[in-house]
Amino acid sequence: MNLKRIMIASTKSGSGKTVATCALLQILKDCGWKAVSYKCGPDYIDPMFHEKAIDIPAKNLDTFFTGEEKTRELFQNSAQNMDFAVFEGVMGLYDGLGGVREEGSSYHLAEVTKTPIVLMVDAKGMGRSMIPLIAGFLNYDKKHLIQGIILNRVTKGYYETLTPLIEEELKTRIIGYLPQTEEFHIGSRHLGLFLPDEVNDIKEKLQAASELFSKTVSIERIKEIAKSAAELEEPANGFMEGAAFMDTRPTVAVAKDEAFCFYYADNIRLLEEYGAKITYFSPLRDEKLPQGCHALLFGGGYPELYAKQLSENMGMRRAVNHAVKNGMPIVAECGGFMYLHSFLKDKKGICYDMAGVIPATCFYTGRLVRFGYIELREKQMHFLANGACIKGHEFHYYDSTCNGSDVMAVKPATGKGYSCIIENKTQWMGFPHLYYPSNPVFAWALIEKAKKYEKAMV
User: What H or E segment, with its residue span, contains residue 254?
Assistant: First the structure.
C-alpha cells in the first residue's frame, strides 16, 4: 500500500492536536481529496468531530488492543481507495500503556504503520527552552519519523523570531504555527471534550480553523511529508480473521442517541462481518424496541445528562426490562450498564427510575473511579473461550452498588486485578468498554446467542 499519510502528535495533552487535525481534514476535504482519519487509542469523542463535523470517515487504532500486525491490517483494509490518511495522536507522543510502556502510544502506532509525524509544540510561555524540549523528542525518535514541527499558541512575530533559532540548532523543519485564540476552543467535561452536537456552530468554527491553518501552516510541506510515507506490504488477511456470514442474519438492536453514542466503528463492523443485521434505536425517544430484534447492544455515553428524559420514557424502560428478562441477549457497557440499573442518582442527588434489569443504584462519586486499559477474563466461559481475554478500558466517575463479580479485570501495566461484570449465558453488563477485534470470539458469541434466541422465537 502506498498511501499519503501523516500523524498530528504533540509533546503532551492539550497542545491543540484535535483542532489541528480537524483543520487539516477540512482542508483536504475542500480540496477534493478522499481522506480518512484515525484516532490513536481508546477515544470515542475525537472521531466524532472528524466524522460528524467534517463528514470524514473516522475510526480508532490501538496497538495495545490489537498488536502490531492486526493494527496494521485494520488500517490498510479501512484505507482502501482513499487518497490521504490523517492520524491524531493521544497524550504525549511517547505516552503508552500505563504512561510507561510503548504499546498504545502515538509513536508506536506511527512506527507500526510507517507514518511520518508532525509534532505540535505548545510554545506559550516559552522561548529558547523550546529547543531542549524539541531536541529531546527528536533524540528519542529512533525511527526518524518526526518530519516537521508546528508551534502552537505563539504570535506571528515570535514565531518568526524563534523559527531560525530552532531550525539552525536542531536541523529540523518548522512548518508553521497557530496563534492563541479562544474562537476555536472546544470545551470539555470530566469524560473529555463536549460532543460535536453540543458545540454551537461547530462546522463554522472548524471551517474558520481550517482557513487560519492554511494561512499559518505550510500545507504543501504537510503534503510532501505525507507523500514520503514508506510503502506498506499488503495484508495477508481480510478485515477480520475467520469472519464469515451465517446461514441466517439475526438483528442486533444498538442503542444510539445523545445518551448512548460511544461505539468503536470496528466493533459494529465486526458484528456485521459475523452476520448481524444492525438496527439503531433511541432510548430517549423511541417507546419500544425495533421490531424483530434478537439481541441488544448498549454502548457508553452520557445517560446521567439525560436521566430525566430516559426515566420519563416508561415504554422503552419496560420494553428493555421485558426483553432481557425473557432471555434476549444483551451487552451493555458503561453508560448502557448504568441505564439497566433500577435507579440512577445524578450529581445533585436526584434519583431517577431506569430500566430495572439490575436491582441496584448507580451514583456519582465526584472522582475518577476507574481509568485505563484492562484485560478481561471470564470466571465461567459464556462469551469467550479457553480462558482467553478480551481487551478494553474504563473511564467513569459513576459507580454502582452492584458492579458484578463474574469477570476478572487485570491492569496490564501493574498486574493488579479486580472483579467486575454481571454475566451469564445471555448477558454481559458492566462498566468496561470492550474492543471486539482484540478477541473476535466475543462478537461471534453474541451473534450465536442472537441466532439461538431467533430460533426460540419461531
Answer: strand 251-255
Q: How far does Cα 334 stand from its chain's mean position? A: 14
Known catalytic membership, residue 362 = no
Query: What is the residue whose three cell numbers read 504503520?
Result: 113
Residue carrying C-alpha cell 415504554: 315
Q: Are strands 188-189 and 192-193 parallel, antiparallel or unpaired?
A: antiparallel
Q: Give how far Cα 222 sits from Cα of 19, 74, 211, Å.
A: 16, 24, 15
Locate 326 and state its grid cell: 425473557
- How open is the CA angle 400-403-409, to the nearest 5 degrees? 135
Closest among 58, 60, 80, 77 to 69, alpha carbons compared: 77
Q: Alpha-carbon distance 303 to 395, whole Å? A: 14
274 is written with which cell numbers?
459475523
What would the pLDDT profile of 334-390 be if each residue is shown by its tens digit? 999 999 999 999 999 999 999 999 999 999 999 999 999 999 999 999 999 888 999
- In angstroms, what CA-CA distances link 132 with 72, 99, 137, 155, 252? 33, 21, 9, 21, 53
DSSP H or E run through 227: helix 219-227
**In the beta sheet, which residues pair with residue 371?**
395
Catalytic residue among 22, 334, 362, 420: 334
User: What residues have CB less than 8 Å from 43, skipping those under 6 apart?
Assistant: 60, 90, 192
Q: Cα–Cα distance between 184 and 198 in angstroms, integer?
A: 14
Beta carbons of 94 and 107 less than 8 angstroms apart: yes
Strand order in the sheet with 427-430: 277-281, 251-255, 295-298, 330-333, 427-430, 422-423
CA-based torsion, 343, 345, 346, 352: positive or negative: positive
Q: Which amino acid is at 413?
A: A
Q: What is the pLDDT of residues 143-154, one digit of tens each?
A: 999 999 999 999
Beta bridge partners of 189: 192
**Dihedral sign (CA 57, 63, 64, 66):** positive
